[in-house]
Amino acid sequence: MSTLPQPAATAGNMDWFLHDRFGMFIHWGLYAAAARHEWVKHQEEIPDEKYDKYFRHFDPDLFEPKAWARMAREAGMKYLVITAKHHEGFCLWDSAYTEYKAPNTPCGRDLLKPVVEAFHAEGLRVGFYYSLLDWHHPDFTVDPMHPMRNHPEAKQWNESRDMARYREYMRNQVRELLTQLGDIDIMWFDFSYPDVEAKGLKGKGHDDWGSEELLKLVRELRPDIIVDNRLDLPTEKADIHTPEQFQPHAWVTVNGLPVHWETCQTFSGSWGYHRDETTWKSPEQLVRMLVNTVSCGGNLLMNVGPTARGTFDQRAVDALGVYADWMNVHGRAIYGCTQSAFTPPPDCRYTQRGDRLYLHVFAWPFKHLHLPGLAGKVAYAQLLNDASEIPVFESAGKPTQEWMHPDALTIELPVKQPDVVVPVVELFLK
Ligand code: GLC
């Protein structure tokens, strides 16, 4: 047994978040049309006049937010975080502060509000991702992350660009997002890079964003809202920490102290829709990532990058189906659960909610599993997928059978693995 990490209290309301554990991320913007990564403008150093073709042709005619929301709910996801604006600067909603928005593309309408309404209608909470970077705004200075970072006139342009005006733009937009689109429960800012410097161009951090003021505004407008940690502010200002694209194997800490955390991950190696990317994760990886995350006290925000026609492509639909099948019978080993103080046997993970301990078996053994520290503590055990009894044996220091462990509790599993991606044994603690 170990003691459980206790993150310090933060300003936002973490109750629902810590219960719900599993959310959907959506990255959707003009880059869906390029279909080769949401950083394509940066990677290929595409100037505005060339990138404009995506704006002029963006027409998601098959956009059906109710179908997105249904798939999210069926996958067991309880909340959504969607890119209101990504680094390219394009806005999905009808912002009064820019012309660079969905209503001005061929689709001719606000694409964000219908998403919020559809997800709320399915009972999911909604949060907004808002990019601090903006590769389209005329006052955003060219920096080492900017598509025009190698342009010979970049420094000259910067002389007439005014970040103070951009800061005001961001505050205006954040006010719109938090007052005109319904109840918003998460504000997910992305990202800061104050220490990056290249060719005399400097990265950006809290002074450039006006992070203190932005955060103050957010908390004023919605006191309970959850805010992430990418504003380049002191640790305690953030409600959640957001490791991405790697799997934490222990409770996440900052400066040695545990924090509330949410890891964001992709089905394949891009956030925006990427037609030719092929590193799609297997069903086993997908489910294990969710289990691993909750077994270390975190949330998982799993990303879908819809196509420029407004659909989830078949690979994403299949991946969501994997979660749907698994969560349908194993949801109670995830919701309201967190890390356990018990140490699991090899190739297994524990999640726990009060007196229910969930043993997730990643590699199905032959018959017996010995559970250290649990002798005398288990009242009943069953497979979670079908509630079939799992026999429990205790030797009390005097094993009566060769296969018994002298001081662990031993459970006897069926020889054949149940037909689920990751089987779970539900242990009722005394
Ligand atoms: C990175 C990337 C971005 C993505 C984000 C998700 O910060 O810049 O494209 O939106 O990760 O966490």
Number of domains: 2
Q: Rg from C-alpha positions?
A: 24 Å
Instruction: Please state the second-level CATH architecture of the largest domain.
Output: Alpha-Beta Barrel
Strand composition percent = 15-25%
Shape: elongated
CATH class of the largest domain: Alpha Beta
Q: List all distinct small molecules, including ions and cofactors, that are bound in this structure.
A: alpha-D-glucopyranose
Specify the number of helices.
12
Strand order of the largest sheet: 7-4-3-2-1-11-10
Record keyword descriptors for this entry.
430 residues; binds alpha-D-glucopyranose; Immunoglobulin-like; TIM Barrel; elongated; alpha/beta; 12 helices; 26% helix; 7-stranded parallel sheet; 4-stranded antiparallel sheet; 2 domains; single chain
General description of the model:
With 430 residues, this protein is an alpha/beta fold. The protein has two domains: 15-333, TIM Barrel, CATH 3.20.20.80; 348-429, Golgi alpha-mannosidase II (Immunoglobulin-like), CATH 2.60.40. The chain has twelve helices and 18 strands. The strands form five sheets. It has a seven-stranded parallel beta sheet. A hairpin with a 2-residue loop joins strand 5 and strand 6. The longest helix is centred in the middle third of the chain and has 17 residues, at 163-179. The model has no long low-confidence stretch (mean pLDDT 97). The structure holds alpha-D-glucopyranose (GLC). The site of alpha-D-glucopyranose has 8 residues, from loops. Alpha-D-glucopyranose (GLC) binds at residues 27, 38-39, 190-191, 244, 264, 271.
